[in-house]
Amino acid sequence: MTTPIPPEGADPHDDDALPPGFPSDSERNWAVFCHLGGFALYLLPFAFGHILVPLVIWLTKRRESAFIEANGREALNFQISVTIYTIGAGALAFLLIGLPLLFALAVFHFVLMVIASVRASQGEVYRYPFTLRLL
Questions:
Q1: What value does the mean pLDDT take over residues 7-34?
Q2: Can you tell me the distance from the alpha carbon of 33 to that of 29, in angstroms, rounded to the nearest whole number?
Q3: Is 87:105 a contact under the CB 8 Å cutoff?
Q4: Hey, what's the torsion of the CAs at 15, 17, 20, 23, to 10 degrees?
Q5: Residues 46-104 pLDDT 10s
Q6: CA pair distance 112, 118, nearest whole angstrom
Q7: What's the chain's Rg over C-alpha atoms?
Q8: Residue 109: CB partners within 8 Å, gap ≥ 6?
Q9: In the prediction, which pLDDT does 7 show?
């Protein structure tokens, strides 16, 4: 689901000037927070904050906006997928192939969350690659 980019000259922060169907400033901010919530992994690696932050936002805001619902679901699926991939790469660390995989996964995780956050701030629903669609 992609939404139109506001026309040239339209102020993206003026909700009245946006075309119909384009997410409001508040909707875009909540969608960005869903994606940025994954950075909790780097602050509290064993607390599953990277899953809890998007989950809480998604559960509390999904009925208010289809845009927040789609972005929250996508962010949550991505964080769950990254957790599964990290467990697999961690298991392979004993064979020494897992260490480069863990590093590559961390870079992949970081970069895609930034891209998704920027896209959400522009009013788009970003679909993460290599993500298991569990929800």
A1: 78
A2: 6
A3: no
A4: -30
A5: 788 899 999 999 999 999 999 999 999 999 999 999 999 999 999 998 888 999 999 99
A6: 10
A7: 16
A8: 38, 41, 82
A9: 55
Q: Which amino acid is at 101?
A: L
* pTM: predicted TM-score of the whole model, two decimal places: 0.84
Which residues lie closer than 8 Å to 79 by C-beta, 6 or more apart? Answer: 37, 38, 41, 50, 51, 54
Could you tell me the two tokens for 116? 């998704």
SS (H, E, C) the chain: CCCCCCCCCCCCCCCCCCCCCCCCHHHHHHHHHHHHHHHHHHHCCCCCHHHHHHHHHHHHHCCCCHHHHHHHHHHHHHHHHHHHHHHHHHHHHHHCCHHHHHHHHHHHHHHHHHHHHHHHHCCCCCCCCCCCCCC
- Written as six digits, the tokens of 104 are 């590559």
**Tokens (6 digits) for 76:** 């949550």
